[in-house]
């Protein structure tokens, strides 16, 4: 039909519809906290505290890593302390007792671990008071006696050297380590090896 070209049926001046460009979704880690920083920060804290206690410094580090502003993180951590959810003194005591009992760590090693977790020195000192000299010596003897069982083919000098090294890595002083190792190795050679259950 005359008069109908390729532009027929399209109103004069109109352009084809072009949808607006869509922004690529940002990575979850790059987005950072949402608009409600406090709600996000509170969820982070509760998630971190589920199952185990943590020091205030550890929690502050987690919030900073998730880009929670300090003006939000600080007051929120204060409130968590007020209600007892964050308590460095309690955390240090529990950590000390647990690691001393399960890993046989000496006070020196326990102090190093707590400092790495950002606990204040006065709080650490108070927590370490719960580990007595007798308890520390007993834990060293248990460690040495257990390790000695796997050294039956070694000569005495090698046994002593390795056991003293083990106790040193656990934070025991050289004097205490040598005394305990000599006692344990001597008892084993004499056939008078103490039963660890008698030390508890």
Number of strands: 0
Helix content: 55-70%
SSE series = HHHHHHHHHH
Please state the average pLDDT score.
84
Shape: elongated
Range of strand content: under 5%
Rg computed from alpha carbons, rounded to a whole number of angstroms = 32 Å
- Straight-line N-to-C gap: 107 Å
Given the structure, what is the number of helices?
10
Number of domains: 3
Describe this structure as you would to a colleague.
The chain is mostly helical and 200 residues long. It folds into three domains: 35-82, Arc Repressor Mutant, subunit A, CATH 1.10.10; 88-128; 133-199. It contains ten helices and no strands. α5 (88-103) packs across α7, α6 runs antiparallel to α7 and α8 (133-148) packs across α10 (174-189). It is elongated, with a radius of gyration of 32 Å. Residues 136-181 form the RecX third three-helical domain. Keywords: Cytoplasm. Residues 24-37 have a biased composition (Basic and acidic residues).
What topology does this entry show?
Elements: H1 28-31, H2 37-49, H3 56-65, H4 70-82, H5 88-103, H6 107-116, H7 121-128, H8 133-148, H9 156-169, H10 174-189
Helix pairs in contact: 3-4, 5-6, 5-7, 6-7, 8-9, 8-10, 9-10
Protein name: Regulatory protein RecX
Domain RecX first three-helical: 41-79
Domain RecX second three-helical: 87-128
């Amino acid at each position: 039909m005359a008069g109908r070209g390729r532009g027929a049926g399209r109103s004069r001046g109109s352009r084809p519809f072009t949808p607006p460009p869509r922004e690529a979704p940002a990575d979850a880690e790059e987005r950072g906290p949402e608009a409600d920083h406090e709600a996000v920060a509170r969820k982070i804290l509760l998630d971190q505290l589920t199952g185990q206690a943590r020091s205030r410094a550890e929690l502050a580090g987690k919030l900073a890593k998730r880009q929670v502003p300090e003006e939000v993180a600080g007051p929120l951590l204060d409130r968590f302390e007020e209600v007892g959810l964050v308590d460095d003194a309690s955390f240090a005591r529990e950590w000390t007792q647990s690691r001393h009992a399960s890993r046989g760590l000496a006070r020196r090693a326990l102090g190093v671990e707590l400092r790495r977790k950002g606990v204040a020195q006065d709080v650490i000192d108070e927590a370490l008071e719960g580990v007595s000299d007798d308890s520390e010596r007993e834990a060293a003897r248990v460690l040495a006696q257990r390790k000695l069982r796997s050294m039956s083919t070694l000569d005495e000098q090698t046994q002593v050297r390795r056991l003293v090294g083990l106790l040193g890595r656990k934070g025991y002083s050289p004097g205490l380590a040598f005394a305990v190792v000599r006692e344990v190795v001597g008892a084993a050679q004499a056939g008078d090896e103490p039963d660890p259950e008698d030390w508890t």
